[in-house]
Amino acid sequence: MSFTPAPWPRKLRSQEWFGGTSKDAIYHRSWMKNQGLPADLFDGRPVVGICNTWSELTPCNAHLRDLAERVKFGIYEAGGLPVEFPVFSPSESTLRPTAMMYRNLCAMDVEEAVRGKCIDGVVLLAGCDKTTPALLMGAASVDLPAIVVSGGPMLNGHFRGEKVGSGTHLWRFSEAVRAGEMTEAEFVEAEASMSRSPGSCNTMGTASTMASMAEALGMALSGNAAIPAVDSRRRVMAHLTGRRIVDMVKDDLKPSDIMTREAFENAIRTNAAIGGSTNAVIHLLAMAGRVGLDLTLDDWDRCGRDVPTIVNLLPSGQHLMEEFFHAGGLPVVIKRLGEAGLLHKDALTVSGGTLWDEVRDVRNWNEEVILPVERALAKSGGIAVLKGNLAPLGAVLKPSAATPALMKHRGRAVVFEDIDDYKARINDEDLDIDESCVMVLKNCGPRGYPGMAEVGNMGLPPKILRKGITDMVRISDARMSGTAYGTVVLHTSPEAARGGPLAVVRSGDMIELDVEARRLHLDISDEELAARLADWTPRMEAPASGYASLYHDRVMGPETGADFDFLVGCRGSAVGKESH
Ligand code: FES
């Protein structure tokens, strides 16, 4: 893509607040000066916001105040004025009912803060799963120069001689407890060993995936995704990002210049190559909506289909982000895509150059971590998009995390009406289920849960786990943690709480899954399905007030990114009125 930098010097947006001798200008400057800022910092230089999702209640982002200081070094050094501000920080590990319910709230906060404040550009400091997409969504809707710096992954976990990854080993240990192979005391002992340092989950979970998506989109400096949170080079990345944003402001290099269709196709292919989280599907669709691109589930299927998964990281593979970093990180993967003809090489990045320029000279330092294509974890690693009478608007499955033998399967449905029903019955030794059955979980979509919880990889019944069986076909309208695995059909749409076909599946119905044919079929007649749907009534009442009510009424389906309908699109940076 060719990009022509704006002329410099020129009058910047921040001068609408700080320029001149009007009452308003003095008001704006005077109050800022109570922080001890010298007068010449308001002389027309770039004023750069640092949008920080730091919070002690978002443990994955708890070190971001330190990184913000490093960003400030870079901004000052390049001749800008840094101003840090907080936004709502949705934490995957501590927020109820789901962090996803608050992704859009965070994105609204970011959008309104960036637009309403006296800044010319913004550095987006994110780490935990929802914070990266939320910040990019908000920034895209304003379209001022913006750049991501990630918090970076935690160091590797270790437990009794075994390397353990965030989330993934939690699911494994939890199943081992339920199968009687691990005591509860051992389970508790494992918890501290999984989280040894600041940072985000160290598997290729959603946080690592979204950091990789930001880099593949061109919205972060090359190499940003994999540097461990506590590695000194993470601070260097923050410092360099601070320097770079000042030049981006001068050039007027905006998200709309970078987040193009080609950039999203690069990101989709990158997601397949890294074995990334299914959550990336929803987040990228929502981000594309913010820049006015008509990205669809079909684009996900089309672009990802021929891309092998070559990153050998948990949950699909064996290693963790620390090894990925030492192997060369995401630039090596992007280079491989380019060499295979699977990359839009001239996609623009925050560097002002092309994505290919960033990666063409990198090397792979560990072929056990970034595999040769002949040893790919999955030949077709892209997210499979399934359609059929059970998912008219689509559903997704991650082939690299699934069991090959189950990718074509016909089985008897065992239905759980909601997550409480599942929890109440799953441990019942009399539950009528065997390993050939298809577990169906309803009412866990955006409206149903609410927020579309990560419960789609529902644990198997203990009596099946005791047989040594670790995977069954599972179908729901929920999401799945990026750290999870299994033959799990997710995001089934329309969701049960909106009266989609999933709502009328009954225990005993036969269900057919055929991933190769991209088919998800409920084996009942069209007439029977129509009659059941006509009889359907909602199980839950809509919340009467508060954010939950707004969320229920305005959230869209996962096939368009589960954004709010009124937030789609870019509304620009114009504010209009003065504050006084
Ligand atoms: Fe925050 Fe995994 S829970 S990154």
Could you say which overall geometry the principal axes of the C-alpha atoms support? Answer: globular
- As for the number of domains, it is 3
| CATH top level label of the largest domain | Alpha Beta
How many β-strands, per DSSP? 14
Mean pLDDT: 96
Task: List the uncertain runs.
Answer: none
- Fourth-level CATH superfamily of the largest domain: Response regulator
Strand content: 5-15%
Could you please say which CATH topology of the largest domain applies here? Rossmann fold
Count the DSSP helices. Answer: 20
Helix proportion range = 25-40%
Main sheet summary: 8 strands, mixed
Class derived from helix and strand content = alpha/beta
GO molecular function: dihydroxy-acid dehydratase activity; iron-sulfur cluster binding; metal ion binding
Family: Belongs to the IlvD/Edd family.
Domain Dihydroxy-acid/6-phosphogluconate dehydratase C-terminal: 368-562
Protein name: Dihydroxy-acid dehydratase
Report on this structure.
- With about 575 residues, the chain is α/β, with parallel strands linked by helices.
- The protein folds into three domains: about 45-155 and about 195-375, 3-Layer(aba) Sandwich (Rossmann fold); about 160-195, no CATH class; about 385-540, 3-Layer(bba) Sandwich (Glucose Oxidase, domain 1).
- It is about 35% helix and about 15% strand.
- The strands form three sheets. The chain has an eight-stranded mixed beta sheet with strand order 7-8-12-11-10-9-13-14. It has a four-stranded parallel beta sheet with strand order 2-1-3-4, sandwiched between helices.
- A hairpin with a 4-residue loop joins strand 13 and strand 14 (about 520).
- Helix 8 packs parallel to helix 12 (about 280-290) and helix 11 (about 260-275) crosses helix 13 (about 295-305).
- The structure holds FE2/S2 (inorganic) cluster.
- FE2/S2 (inorganic) cluster binds near residues 60 and 93.
- FE2/S2 (inorganic) cluster binds near residues 60, 128, 200, 201 and 207.
